[in-house]
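#struct-pred

JT: dropping the chains for the assembly here, can someone run the whole complex?
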Amino acid sequence: MKLLRHQAAASERVHSSHWGTFFVSGRPEQLLVRPNPADPDPSSLLRNIPDAARHSARIAQPVIRRGWLDGGPGPDKRRGRDEYVAVSWTEALDLAAAELQRIREQHGCGAIFGGSYGWSSAGRFHHALSQIHRFLNSIGGYTAHVASYSSGASDVILPRLFAPVLTQRTAVVWPDVAAHTELIVAFGGLAVKNAEVGAGGVGRHTVRDALQAAKARGARFVLIGPLRNDLRTALDAEWIALRPATDVAFMLGLAHTLAVEGLHDRAFLQRCCVGYEAFERYLLGESDGCPKSPEWAEPITGIRAARVRELAREMAAKHTLITMSHSLQRAEHGEQPVWMALVLAAMLGRIGMPGAGYGYSLGTTGNVGKRPPIVPMPSLPQGRNAVSSFIPVARLADMLLKPSEPFEFNGQRLHYPDIRLIYWAGGNPFHHHQNLNRLREAFSRPQTIIVNEPFWTATAAHADIVFPSTITLERDDISGSSEDNFLTPMHKVIEPYAQAKDDYEIFSELAARLGADGVYTEGLTSAQWLRRLYDDLRAQLSAKGHVAPPFEEFWDSDELELPTHDGFAGVLKRFREDPLRTPLQTPSGKIEIFSETIAGFGYADCGGHPRWIEPEEWLGSARAREFPLQLVSNQPSSRLHSQLDFASYSQETKIDGREIMRIHPDEAAKRDVADGDVVKVFNDRGAFLAVARLSREVHPGVVQVPTGAWWDPVEIPGEPQGLCARGNVNTVTRDVGTSRLAQACTGQLCLVQVERFRGAVPPVRRYAVPTQTASDTSGTP
Ligand SMILES: Nc1nc2c(c(=O)[nH]1)N[C@H]1C(S)=C(S)[C@@H](COP(=O)(O)OP(=O)(O)OC[C@H]3O[C@@H](n4cnc5c(=O)[nH]c(N)nc54)[C@H](O)[C@@H]3O)O[C@H]1N2
Ligand SMILES: Nc1nc2c(c(=O)[nH]1)N[C@H]1C(S)=C(S)[C@@H](COP(=O)(O)OP(=O)(O)OC[C@H]3O[C@@H](n4cnc5c(=O)[nH]c(N)nc54)[C@H](O)[C@@H]3O)O[C@H]1N2
Ligand SMILES: [Mo]
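RK: done, full complex below.
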């Protein structure tokens, strides 16, 4: 264990973010940011920090929506279109506490939706999600959510087949890839830009170097996906540009070749897996009369059968690693590719060998595939939630629009709770959710919506009560990720903006008004909490025989490097050696190629083994006649989701404030669209504007626009639902679950049409207070 110092200048303070550690100094309006010199590949996202702290997008004081203030709580279609009235902290806190109390008394705590999904900011103590959950638990509980937008399908299915998503993230570690892998078949790629971030912080960015080391040793890369730049050009990858959403058909073609040519590892399938026989009957067409041969797959995927066959043979001959990005499962029937890739890796028989097998989600963030620390990172205890109702996270709008209606989830029949109050802190549903016009309708239903936010996001602009939160630079904290072995002090660098308060302070004030401050704060200041969290970590380390320095020494350093262990890779190695003595945590103790449990649920959209199920929105569906382009809405390269979208680096990747849409030149020509034209991207759910960029790195039939532009629908003639002028992709995505099993987010893909925008182009509005704020009655300091 080591304390590290990196010779920060006297004026600099060490700080951290989801995209890395940095040193900061300078004026709040224009901060000077220097990446951690010990980081071999610091993230460019740091360039969004200098001008963020005092941007006009900051929320300056507590505000109340005019309609709520005048008319009281209740459903209201003006949400998102109303003006705001500035009030004092006391008034806002009194109103919010009284409303929480009213809902609690009249409807019970289950009527409060506090799931509050979102990435929030780095920092173990001030982590907004931990704070809001602890607060709501202290006053009686809340309706929660399960799983994530990132890996909602895998979160549910992988533990039944292999291991929980968090566990399997170390199934294959980067040092082993660098040293051993001969062939990397990457479904959805291994985009280095995605590895720039990691929830909680990234001590060292190591993915680029690991890929390069594998390449230098002679590893070959195959990229399977619609976009060429999902793998670095320096890796000389072969690009197999298949139609999006058809990977399962492609994989079945590979599996079929392995099976008929006897290239599958029968011994491994026998020893370490269950259910191969049932799957093979489907694969060979014995159960349904349709062999899943490469010829069968070709018209679905668009990939020549001969190419599939060659690749299958090469995969069997080499030390092969299959990786898969989360994106494939953030789509209709997203459970299937996750499962099918596991089956393919099992057939190759190298699961549990270093640098081979199945590296699900490797590369999707900077910390997947690192050796994890030997103790969990410190975290704020959540208390106990006395309410048992929950939703799968992406069923948010369904819950609000269909109270009391039944739905299926993971073998259970549940009912949507009747939500009267939403409280959000640390997330942006008007970024992350699909079909935003529908979400706006859903957000008109509750009686009250409360949001804590540092910035005027579309979510804040749909709330009734808005509390201005501080950003991390305005408070002391400790950062660290449970998958990374660096703990970093985050020093307060600047004073809170205007009247902003820490979430901890806001919730303490509310808890006090609701008679729960003792439970929520335990009588501790935030400085005392930091010390407690650190001391807990110290005690855990000490129990494992490691001596960590006292808090003061840690606080004076720049990083604490923690010891690591071999993670799930080590577990899999032992499992492979002796599956009976060291079983997996699945029902059979083995890898489940056939799952009796899932088969027992009787779902038509997710059966007992993986299969090709045609989605409703793909290039081969009837709907594609009307909306013939598949929109890939992937993660942005210049920001984390919607965070700091207004800041300078994010803005550099736009044109006149609008997102860029990449399109193949042939598709552009069909539509008379030239490079640089403003285009309308639309379907029957909505429309947004973007700027066309012609690119041969995009599969024909596909257009790509990154997520993260702040939703800003402008009402113009001829566009009854408005048109998002900045280019938020979720204006057009589809709000439907992956299947009855996981009910997960399917936002990555949807069908659209594109045309040159011929009207007067509406300007992109400034990132600032939505509509006109009534004159400040409280007096901003
Ligand atoms: N179409 C489509 N949609 C997608 C995806 C996709 O691939 N395609 N991907 C999905 C995925 S994987 C994810 S994870 C989600 C991400 O969705 P989110 O996690 O909701 O997105 P963020 O922009 O990170 O939102 C975090 C919010 O927290 C606020 N915040 C930061 N720090 C603090 C703080 O200290 N206190 C408070 N109160 N607030 C704070 C930020 O200002 C920001 O508004 O999006 C999903 N949506
Ligand atoms: N810079 C940056 N990095 C990030 C984030 C960010 O916002 N910014 N967000 C982080 C988060 S929360 C998450 S969950 C991860 C998400 O990690 P991922 O889900 O892996 O990331 P995406 O960029 O959404 O998708 C990766 C690629 O998948 C490809 N793809 C889409 N559909 C298909 C398909 O049907 N088949 C195949 N073969 N490929 C397909 C697309 O070409 C896309 O570029 O990224 C993390 N990293
Ligand atoms: Mo995510």
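JT: nice. The radius of gyration is 26 Å. The first strand starts at residue 2 and ends at 4.
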